[in-house]
Amino acid sequence: MWFSRSKKSLEVKTRCVQLLSSHDYRGNQIITSHYTAMNFVPMNVFEQFCQPANIYFLFLSVLQTLPRITTTHHMPFMLLPLTCIVCVNMMKDAVLDWRRHKSDKEENERPSLCIRNAQSEAGSSKWCDVQVGNIIIVKNNEYVPADIVILTSAHEEGHVYIDTANLDGETNLKTRQAPDDVFKLVGHHETWEDAIKSAQKLVGDVECEPPNERLESFTGTITLSKEGKEPHDSNRCTEPAPERVQGQECVLGDGSCGLHWHRHQDHDEQ
Fold this sequence. Notes:
single chain; five-stranded antiparallel β-sheet; four-stranded antiparallel β-sheet; 12 strands; 23% strand; elongated
């Protein structure tokens, strides 16, 4: 196994993911909100008074209460407009963050077909409950819940067509291919149920880079075998999975979130 990085960097920054096994990596939950119900008021007030303009008017309000300086009979008249501005900004931030919470909930509660171990059957699971090492089934025109590595596809060559518009704005379909050795192990199947049975017999792991903000590449080494067979090593470098996959059935797994299973149905089966 090898990576195009230094040995020191690999020791610190790579992760090893076993297929259909539990891991201690972080979950798949998406959180874009900035506040919680408990910390909203103190955090928002603190952030607003980190702004120079608000600090300036607060300082003037304090000066208006000092006997030797005040020209307002110790009345901090500046405090009234300052309080109004802070309250209006607080309400605006509350509405924006409530929308983020709502969007996060909708995203995290999207359903997906998931297999958690070699003995379990495919069952519906929320995106936030997808774990590293799971196998996930993705059907035609469905969104992909996590970064994945393709295991097999409804296409005889093991490729899929993906739409990455939600990631990079490009609307043209891109082609992604399952690693040759992996596709040979799993094989091509007419139905996703048969593909699941074949994928559940896989034994192995993926050594890859941890989650990062790079959308253009994913580097890792996958070592898989079927029960009773010798393991196969397959070096693979590909772009991470998009928000939406278009095409036929495909079985996928992920490098940064673990192995996942995704499969698409033919258009006439929709």
